[in-house]
Design brief:
Layout lengths: L20 H14 L12 H8 L3 H14 L2 E2 L7 E2 L19 H6 L4 H4 L18 H13 L15 H15 L8 E4 L2 H12 L5 E6 L3 H9 L3 E8 L2 E2 L10 E4 L13 H14 L2 E5 L24 E6 L11 E4 L5 H11 L5 H13 L1 H24 L5 E3 L7 E6 L5 H10 L5 E2 L11 E5 L5 H14 L1
Parallel strand pairs: 4-5, 4-7, 7-8, 8-9
Antiparallel strand pairs: 1-2, 3-10, 5-6, 9-10, 11-12, 12-14, 13-14
Helix pairs in contact: 1-3, 2-3, 6-12, 7-12, 8-9, 13-15, 14-15
């Protein structure tokens, strides 16, 4: 049975109007029937209920209902609610809607990098971890305990920049694992690196200013800067990482992935690190260090984060749980200079970028217990084997340059023989793979090839990928 309509949703009787209240009520209801808001068989409230809802005399409603019945629009039976019996009248000519579009800044914010890089679906996509390695049972138990906890003020809007237990354990881990002396108060929990980059870009710059970015480099950073109205400036990358002397002196931000450059996989040398910190001190630029895939480094000596060397507050350090756990959990963190703590906290709150409370508690528990570190070691071993196997399979294919990965979950394959990126992407897409065009990560570098993920690579997938690339590339 259709629930009787709440009349105040469509009827607005005006006691000061020229028409009698009963006529106003009749016209409002008839209009709703004709335009389809009240369909065939829809029940109206009884005259007594309608009078109470609208604050009118019952006799006024009765007159309006009688007019509708005379019109043939409703039927009334003793002991039953009035019902609509007239089907909606076909609408008149459509009124042209004023066209609207997002702003120029909105278009930049809404840019979808995935459309530029390759197929929409498939396996072995760069930057994506293996869902099969996610510790589902441990995470579920930790979440259950977090949901049963009494959170006090944090259950509402207290500490939107992150719960104290998580910031404390992050401080300990960053000091031990990345060499960063970061007090808990300088750590801001975010919804991930992408959200943090967007926040800092809007907070620290004015539209039209310039931001340096590695070339080739992370598309998400470019989108974040463009969405903030900035002008991204490409800076070349070589075997030692970003070329510091090519960083313009007038940029406000310098974004880079020094631990495992995305997408080439090189590490920033010690000399370049010192030079970049020195440049930031001289120019006032703010370094944005994306500590990308630093959990998965298996070749060479482990090195500290760039932010560990920026003792004067020249850098913001970005990290996340995206690869050790899952990107969709949306948990990351920033280590910000002391003078920026208050504005960053306020901006994060005002932009509504707070991370999920229960997920924060679950992550803090896993880190405190050592299970997070054990998970990182477990998947690092798996990814190392898969990355090396992929590199070995692609190495013999002529016309390709493949560098053995030092870490991470993807590798860059350069085309040295002039083969078509589009043809390779198309052939691999038909085979169920989702690599990315290397050129999509370039602004001026002009590199051609593929960026291939190996986190979910299996021997069979690797063999099939190499066969397709060797045959159809």
């Amino acid at each position: 049975m259709t629930k009787p309509l709440s009349l105040p949703l469509i009827c607005r009787p005006d006691r000061e109007g020229e028409e009698p209240l009963a006529v106003q009520l009749y016209r409002d209801l008839l209009a709703a029937i004709r335009d389809g808001r009240l369909g065939q068989g829809h029940a109206l409230p009884s005259s007594r209920a309608a009078a109470g809802e609208l604050g009118l005399a019952r006799s006024t409603v009765t007159v309006a209902y009688d007019l509708l019945r005379a019109e043939g629009a409703i039927e009334m039976r003793r002991g039953a609610a009035p019902r609509v019996v007239t089907a909606p009248v076909a609408p008149g000519p459509a009124v042209a809607m004023v066209p609207r579009a997002v702003s120029g800044r909105g278009a930049r914010m809404a840019r979808n990098p995935r459309r530029e890089t390759g197929p929409a679906q498939g396996v072995m996509a760069p930057g994506e971890p293996d869902e099969g390695l996610f510790p589902a049972d441990e995470w579920a138990r930790a979440l259950r305990r977090a949901a049963r906890r009494r959170h006090g003020g944090a259950f509402a809007y207290a500490e939107p920049w992150g719960i104290a237990p998580l910031r404390r354990i992050l401080s300990e881990r960053l000091r031990a694992d990345r060499g960063i002396a970061a007090e808990p108060d300088r750590i801001v929990v975010t919804t991930g690196t992408q959200g943090g980059l967007s926040l800092i870009a809007r907070l620290m710059t004015e539209p039209g200013e310039r931001a340096a970015i590695e070339d080739p480099g992370y598309l998400g950073a470019r989108v974040a800067f463009e969405g903030a109205g900035l002008v991204p400036v490409p800076v070349p990358v070589d075997a030692e990482g970003i070329v510091v002397e090519a960083v313009p002196r007038d940029v406000r931000l310098v974004y880079l992935t020094p631990s495992n450059q995305y997408p080439t996989g090189v590490r920033l040398s010690h000399a370049r690190r010192a030079a970049l910190v020195r440049t930031a001190r001289e120019t006032g630029a703010l370094i944005l260090e994306d500590d990308y895939d630093s959990e998965f480094l298996w070749r060479g000596r482990e090195i500290a984060a760039l932010s560990a060397e920026a003792g004067g507050g020249e850098a913001i350090h970005f990290g996340s749980a995206s690869k050790v756990l899952a990107p969709a959990l949306r948990i990351g963190w920033m280590v910000v200079p002391g003078d920026l703590v208050d504005p960053v906290r306020a901006a994060l709150r005002n932009q509504g970028l707070m991370a999920n409370l229960h997920a924060q508690w679950a992550l803090a528990e896993m880190m405190e217990s050592g299970r997070y570190r054990a998970q990182a070691r477990r998947i690092a071993r798996a990814y190392e084997g898969r990355g090396r196997a992929l590199c070995e399979a692609l190495g013999p294919i002529g016309g390709l340059s493949v560098r053995p990965p030092d870490g991470g979950v993807q590798l860059a394959v350069r085309f040295d023989d002039g083969r078509s990126e589009e043809a390779a992407i198309h052939a691999l897409g038909r085979g169920g793979f989702r690599p990315a065009r290397l050129s999509a990560y370039c602004m001026e570098a002009g590199a051609r090839g593929l960026v291939v993920g190996f986190a979910d690579a299996t021997p069979e997938r690797i063999a099939r990928f190499a066969r397709i690339l060797g045959t159809d590339g």
